[in-house]
Structures are given as C-alpha cells and as structure tokens.
Amino acid sequence: MKRSLIALGSLLMLGGTASAQKVAFEEYNLDNGLHVILHQDKSAPVIITSVMYHVGSKDENPERTGFAHFFEHLLFEGTENIKRGEWFKIVTANGGNNNANTSDDRTYYYEVFPSNNLELGIWMEAERMLHPVINQIGVDTQNEVVKEEKRLRIDNQPYGNLIAEVKKNMFKVHPYRWATIGSMEHLDAATLQEFQAFNKKFYIPNNAVLVVAGDFDPAQAKKWINQYFSVVPKGTPITRQTFTEQPITQAFKARYEDPNVQLPMVVTAYRTPSMKTKDARVLDMISSILSDGKSSRMYKKIVDEKKMAMQIGAFNYTQEDAGLYIVYGIPMPGFTAEDIMKEADAEIVKLQTELISEREFTKLQNQFESRYVSNNSNVEGIAENLASYYLLYGDVNLINTEIDIYRKITRQDIMDAAKKYLNPNQRMTLDYVGAKDKAQN
C-alpha cells in the first residue's frame, strides 16, 4: 500500500543529519485520550502526520485472525467526507505519499506531505478515526486485495511461511501463535458487523498516538489537532488479557513442506523476553556478533571459511509481550542441516563460555552507535520511533536514551544472556523443506 514520489522522497532524506543529536519533542493528551507528540524539524519543507493504534494480530479473536492487517487496508477505503477510491488521489494530488503497516502489536498509518499541507494531513487522519466508511463493498474489495497479497508475498514466495511456522510452534497459548496476515477462511467467514465492531473497539483516540513531525508551526498544529481530533469521542477502555506460556525445557522438532523451496533450510528458535527488557537488547547485540555482516562469527566460519552453508544467520525477533531468537541456515550440497547447526551451536557455546574480546566489543558498540544515528536520520523514521516508544514501551524519551541502555551492556551481560536463553533444551528445530523432500524422510 505504498505511493511514493521520487522528488519528495529525496527531500525527506535531507530532513535529518547523520549525527546523534537529541530528538526534541513535545507531548500532551486531548480530553478524549488521544496522545499527541510534536517534533519540529525545519531542515526540509516536509511534514509527517501519523497515527499508531495499539492493535495488532495479538488482539484478534482466534476464530477471526487477520483483522488487524485487514484494517490496514480497509481504512483507506474512504470516509464520510472522502469518497471511496479518492484517498490516494488526494494525497498524490497534493504532492504527498502515504503508507501503513501492521505487526503483532500495533498498526501504523502515515502521510508525508510538503509542509504547506499540514492541515490536510491532520484532517485526513482525523477522518480515518472519526468517519470511516465500513461497508460490504469495501470489505469485499479488500478481501480480494489481502488474498492477492498473501499469494504474492507468502504462499508463492520461497520461505514465505517461515516466521509463521516458527510462531505457530513456539507459542501454544499466546496470540502470537498465528500469522499477522491471518486466515483467509476467517476473513471470508466474518460478517460486516464483526468488522464494524472491531473498528469501534480498537480504532479509538484513547488507543492511539498522533505524531506530527517536520517543518511546521507548533501553535498552528495544535489548533488544527484540537479542531479535527477533539471531536472524536473517547472509546470504551480496552482490557487486555495476559497469556502465560509454559517454559520450554526439552528440545522438540517440527517440519514444514513448502513447494516453492528448492533448497531446504534448518531453523532453530528460542523464546525470549519482551522487547522492553534489557535482556532483549543484549540479544540484539548477540545477533550482531553472530551474523551481522561478512565479518560476523557465523558467516565468517560457516559460509566463508568452511563453505558449509549458502546462508547462515541469527536474529532477535522482538515483540511487546515476548520474542523469539531465530538461527537459520541453508546447507551447501554435501552438507546436512545437522552439520551446519553443529557449527552454529559451537559459536553460541563460545559466547556462553568465553567473554568476547575488548576489540570485538568496541566494534560492536560502534555498530550500535551507528545504528542509532541511522534510525533517527530522517523525519519519517523519527515519527515512527516516537510513536513506537510511546505506545509499546511507555516512554517517548527512549528515542534519546535507549542508546544508553546499549552502552551500559557489558561483555559479561552478553555471556549471561547467551547462557540464559540459547540452550539446546530450550529450543525448537524446524526443518523447512520442499515438497519433493518428503520422500526422503
């Protein structure tokens, strides 16, 4: 759902500088519970208006999965004052672009405009919240759009179901167990009234944060925000359920057959804590040590030196309630999944038993300093970060201080986290294979 203009995109990239300067912002609440964050940046004549809603796939009925992602599409259908099919026309006619994305935890909508269209951007997001038109023709249209997206991005994409299969096997109770895109059968079975009820429950001001960032006058922005958003009625407060998974204490295996796959992949996965914890950040660092770039430990040894794998990687899949640490590899001909996982495990054991060198640690710290600067290098990135830190972490100023958490991580912390979370008895091994490999097992 992306519409972009090359010229405006170029301007946007000029909207930040490659330095770790403090991100200034102002935040306040409207009476209806909408949280507002303003970030002024006059380095380019661009503004971002964005709304993040605290609703993702984890908030769905297990019998109606896919609703949050569906609404990512549905809420572009139109409003009482924006005719069906006119949303993108209005944006592009005014020199802008827009997009939306959904995760297990939240849904994010935004518009990028030349700075003289601030009022338009604020009005459009208020319209989406106050006057969405949710009717059968819109539901039917977007149902086909979502099905096509699933076919292109997941069903017909090699390894397209990888994360979904890992989640399904690693979570037995938590709603993280289903794919963000959900079930097409569930969407087909849903009634119009169910879609309207989902909107009424979650797309409310007291479940959202509005961010305005870029080149604008704060006093004028506040007037327009009050004019267009204060009339949105407060919704019923949302009560969120807590889910507790039994710890994994014994290794187990799973298998998935994908007809699009020519080369089998092996995956190991471990459960990890919420992205809000220090340990989640330590695991981010462990991922960099193991597989960030060609000089990383796993790549250098398994791919470069021993030439045992075409690909090898490890990453920390972070989420609001709990996460996953995933290691994956594609063996070279002549080697097995067991061969490359043995080598990968050996690198994890090294982290569990040996402190990384001071030199490697310095390199690691520099990588995260650079990443921090990059994440806040343009206005669009800053806007999304401000929204995320408020809605998912509960602290907007983490946009400035999270790097300090990483700076305080020690070599001993890295060893301790590897020992705590990355043990063979705490994991699943998934064989992700092509359908032709069925007869071999």
Automatic annotation (TrEMBL):
Coiled-coil stretches noted in the UniProt entry, renumbered to this chain: none
Gene Ontology MF terms in the entry: metal ion binding; metallopeptidase activity
Listed GO biological process terms: proteolysis
Start and end residues of each Peptidase M16 C-terminal domain: 190-367
Domain Peptidase M16 N-terminal: start-end pairs: 36-175
Presence of the UniProt keyword Kinase in the record: no
Keyword terms, alphabetized: Hydrolase, Metalloprotease, Protease, Signal, Zinc
Family: Belongs to the peptidase M16 family.
This protein's name: Peptidase M16
Organism: Flavobacterium album
